[in-house]
Amino acid sequence: METQVFPVTDVVRNSPALEKRLQIREMSAESWVERYASGTLRKNKRLGMAWHNQYLVERVSFEFGWEFGLQPRSRVTFGDAFTEGDVPSITEAGWHIDRYLELSVFPEDRLECKYLQVEYADASKIEGIGMVLRETSAAWIGKGNLVFAIVAPFDPLNQVWKEAHNPF
Fold first, then answer.
1. For residue 42, what are the contacts with CB-CB under 8 A and spacing of at least 6?
2. Which one of 17, 69, 106, 130 has the lowest number of neighbouring Cβ atoms within 10 Å?
3. Helices 52-64 and 39-46: angle between axes, nearest 10 degrees
4. Residue 12 has pLDDT above 90, yes or no
5. 118: in domain
6. Is the pTM of this model over 0.85?
């Protein structure tokens, strides 16, 4: 299942506290690039390079947090995340994910804790415990894509958990 896009609720649209965040979320790609993108993206877009993929990478990180990424749904597999006792990375992942979910400002953003396996276009892979964005009001994500974050990476070759990362 890809990340589903739904309209912003009236509660959010009418909230003075969320006005700035909503303006950013609803910015066009061109406006967002001019205001928030890296210098590399702005320059290379101006030079006529294909820029949309880099834009999505940067915007997902900006909107959702540094650990978040976006891939075509066919490149991401996920299922239940299992806890294990006395594994600091899993303990920290639970803490980070719980905090992220509690502090999320958009009620349309429905995130779930999952175990993920991601294969990138260059054939590199990553897996671990993280979050999958099931629903959002961020229409710029586009159809067929899935937004996710791996908070506690797992090294399947060495069978060890790597240090957890704060997704913010």
1. 33, 34
2. 17
3. 150
4. no
5. yes
6. yes
- Total structural domains in the chain? 1
Convert the pLDDT of each residue in 79-97 to its tens digit.
999 999 899 999 999 999 9
Tokens 């700035």 -> residue: 20
Domain that holds residue 74: 4-161
DSSP strand pairing (4-5 vs 145-155): unpaired
* Number of helical (H) and strand (E) elements in the chain, helices listed first: 6, 7
Residue 97 has which token pair? 């994910």
Residue 58 lies in a domain: yes
Q: Is residue 166 part of a domain?
A: no
| Calculated CA dihedral for residues 45, 109, 90, 115, nearest 10 degrees | -80
What sign results for the dihedral spanned by CA atoms 142, 110, 133, 57? positive
Q: 100: Cβ–Cβ under 8 A, 6 or more apart, which residues?
A: 65, 111, 131, 167, 168
Rounded average pLDDT over 126-146? 96
DSSP for 7-32, please give it. Answer: PPPHHHHT-GGGHHHHHHHT--HHHH
Does residue 59 form part of some domain?
yes
Where does the pLDDT of residue 120 fall: very low under 50, low under 70, confident under 90, or very high at 90 and above? very high
User: For residue range 66-76, what is the model confidence (pLDDT) as tens digits?
Assistant: 999 999 999 99
CA nearest 134: which of 104, 93, 103? 104
